[in-house]
Design brief:
This protein is mainly beta and 222 residues long. The chain folds into two domains: 30 residues; 189 residues, Lipocalin, CATH 2.40.128. 11% of the residues lie in helices and 36% in strands. It has one helix and 16 strands. Strand 6 and strand 7 form a beta hairpin. The chain is globular, with a radius of gyration of 23 Å.
Length: 222
């Protein structure tokens, strides 16, 4: 066999080996995917009378939790979403309305994951769980409060909340209002209703003040 032939055979073997190593590395690093509730809080006041479809909105995680692959998402991590629909109550409308979608989650090291999420439950700010109007829905009358009672629990196979010693539910040091990750609807707040991810109010607008806590039903796309 000539020197040229030997060199070509060696080069071919090297390329095949390199491709095999790359395949093995990719196979050993599966995409981060999963579905479960995640805790967030409003970073800046959201007002349905001042928002429109497509507007970006920002949140931060209200507790630390782990992704299905074991990655820890620290408390205070940035979550980005957008407005699906927003309207103030005008003449002839029964309700004001706000619908949010959650799109991106920042994790440690600057990594960003894609989400597909909607609001599952709403809680007042931890600093003033029963105080007035850090979170309001336009008026002090005419709203409703829906949802399951407070308690513990995380959906099987969901994202595990690991903030402090809370296990599957979270409670601020300054608050007796526990974030139950199985809860649905509006908890501990008046003049606001939630159904199928849509927030509505009998008031002139839906307004979520900074610090309002949300349980987000999210699919992590990776």
């Amino acid at each position: 066999m000539s020197r040229v032939s030997v060199a070509l055979v060696a080069l071919g073997a090297s390329l095949c080996f390199g491709q095999a190593v790359a395949f093995a590395q990719n196979a050993a690093t599966p995409a981060i995917t999963g579905h479960g509730p995640i805790p967030v809080k409003v970073a800046k006041t959201l007002d349905s009378s001042k928002l429109k479809e497509g507007d970006p909105v920002e949140f931060e995680t209200a507790g630390s939790f782990k992704l299905p692959d074991g990655t820890l998402v620290p408390k205070g991590s940035r979550v980005v979403g957008h407005v699906v629909a927003a309207k103030a109550r005008s003449k002839g409308d029964p309700d004001s309305e706000l619908t949010l979608s959650f799109d991106k989650l920042n994790v440690s090291g600057g990594k960003q994951l894609s989400l597909k999420g909607e609001v599952q439950a709403v809680y007042p700010p931890a600093e003033e769980p029963m105080g007035p109007n850090m979170a309001t829905a336009g008026t002090s009358r005419g709203g409703s409060m829906t949802g399951s009672p407070m308690g513990g629990g995380v959906s099987p196979g969901g994202v595990g909340v690991t903030d402090s010693n809370s296990g599957s539910s979270m409670e601020s040091k300054d608050s007796q209002t526990v974030m139950n990750m199985k809860a649905t609807g509006v908890q501990g707040m008046h003049d606001l209703s939630l159904q199928n991810g849509v927030l509505t109010s009998k008031g002139k607008n839906v307004k979520l003040g900074g610090g309002v806590r949300l349980v987000v039903s999210a699919e992590i796309l990776g």
